[in-house]
């Protein structure tokens, strides 16, 4: 038997992607690098089109922009006339980030994360047990209860007692309150290496994962530079670095304050950073030192890590730098908190976060 090999043809072996789909895919990627700046992404797209001929006679860049508006991805600011992406586009970016970051990972089922313990939980199991005070009425095993009553009293003088009642076992579903800390210090773009784009992409992916698959969980975002501040999930595509030092202490304090307000039993902090702590506030004034590891700054951070540990908050650090002295700081932080640390490269950052997040869900309920 002979085989004849020819060039792959989308039209013969599957649905060919339209010009709009190809441009839209590239436009989303450019938006990731432009921190959600639609005008800048469109400018880059136009330059790429001029150089590589991305468009054809069916759709030019102008047609593409009009189609984005028509489909609800792009709108014009009435005050300035500038182009900006819509809430629908922000949601699409989160979905794309989730698919891209977790494409190679094993897919998990929809819903909450199960624990291996039976008791008073959310999902009814086929197994039953004797009724206990406080059990929910909707878990009553009517058939089993009646069988117990007939077995005890017979059909002649039938009666129902407390010890006849049977209820179904339930499967626990743990819920998790997570604060994701993102380092926006200037070092995230120093030396020609873009570290903020994968960090931002991973944050969007994690947000979309929790919003769509773990609806009982909570996710809060904390950005930290000279200080720390909360960020709405809808603003994740626009996160960008600034001329900041790294106030890790303020970030941990803000994250811990948020977790105090959360009712979830399990609480954790994920911190994406590429550098050492280099500042903190003393009596309303900033103390800063960008050279080496200043023990005055480091010890304040370690003290906060111990406080988190005592309050049951695990800190998982994702270090996207290879410097040995920075890794030594992360080891100190991890030891103080009894937490976890990963020395992730930029292309595996999302994978580490996803795998650790899912694994942390299976924890003992005390």
Q: State the end-to-end CA separation.
A: 66 Å
Q: Within the CATH hierarchy, at the fold level, what is the topology of the largest domain?
A: Rossmann fold
The CATH superfamily of the largest domain bears the name von Willebrand factor, type A domain
- Number of beta-strand segments: 13
The name of the CATH architecture of the largest domain is 3-Layer(aba) Sandwich
Low-confidence stretches: 104-111, 115-122, 362-366
Number of helices: 11
Strand content: 15-25%
Please tell me the overall pLDDT.
83
Structural class by SSE content: alpha/beta
Question: How large is the radius of gyration?
Answer: 27 Å
What does the largest sheet look like?
Answer: 6 strands, mixed
Mind sketching the topology for me?
Blueprint: H1 10-13, H2 19-33, H3 38-52, H4 61-70, E1 74-76, E2 83-85, H5 87-101, E3 113-119, E4 123-130, H6 142-153, E5 166-174, E6 176-183, H7 196-213, E7 218-224, E8 228-231, H8 248-261, E9 266-273, E10 279-282, E11 285-288, H9 295-310, E12 313-319, H10 324-337, E13 340-343, H11 349-360
Parallel strand pairs: 6-7, 6-9, 9-12, 12-13
Antiparallel strand pairs: 1-2, 3-5, 4-5, 7-8, 10-11
């Amino acid at each position: 038997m002979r085989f004849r090999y020819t060039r792959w043809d989308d039209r013969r072996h599957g649905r060919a992607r339209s010009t709009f789909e190809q441009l839209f895919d590239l436009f989303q990627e450019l938006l990731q690098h432009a921190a959600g700046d639609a005008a800048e992404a469109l400018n880059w797209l136009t330059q790429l089109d001029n150089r590589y001929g991305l468009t054809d006679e069916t759709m030019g860049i102008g047609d593409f922009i009009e189609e984005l508006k028509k489909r609800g991805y792009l709108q014009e600011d009435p005050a300035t006339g500038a182009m900006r992406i819509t809430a629908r586009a922000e949601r699409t970016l989160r979905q794309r980030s989730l698919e891209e970051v977790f494409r190679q990972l094993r897919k998990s089922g929809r819903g909450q994360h199960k624990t291996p313990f039976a008791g008073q939980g959310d999902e009814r199991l086929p197994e039953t047990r004797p009724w206990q005070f406080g059990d929910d009425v909707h878990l009553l095993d009517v058939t089993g209860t009646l069988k117990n009553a007939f077995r005890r009293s017979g059909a002649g003088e039938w009666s129902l007692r407390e010890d006849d009642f049977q209820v179904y076992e339930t499967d626990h579903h743990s819920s998790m309150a997570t604060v994701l800390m993102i380092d926006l210090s200037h070092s995230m773009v120093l030396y020609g290496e873009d570290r903020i784009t994968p960090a931002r992409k991973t944050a969007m992916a994690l947000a979309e994962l929790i919003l769509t698959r773990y609806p009982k969980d909570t996710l809060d975002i904390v950005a930290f530079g000279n200080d720390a501040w909360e960020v709405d999930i809808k603003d994740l595509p626009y996160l960008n670095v600034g001329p900041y030092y790294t106030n890790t202490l303020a970030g941990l304090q803000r994250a811990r304050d948020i977790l105090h307000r959360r009712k979830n039993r399990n609480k954790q902090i994920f911190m994406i950073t590429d550098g050492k702590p280099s500042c903190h506030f003393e009596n309303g004034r900033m103390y800063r030192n960008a050279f080496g590891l200043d023990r005055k700054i480091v010890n304040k951070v370690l003290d906060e890590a111990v406080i988190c540990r005592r309050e049951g908050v695990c800190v998982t650090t994702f270090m996207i730098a290879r410097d040995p002295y920075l890794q030594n700081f992360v080891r100190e932080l991890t030891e103080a908190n009894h937490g976890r640390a990963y020395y992730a490269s930029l292309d595996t950052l999302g994978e580490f976060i996803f795998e650790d997040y899912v694994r942390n869900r299976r924890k003992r309920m005390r």
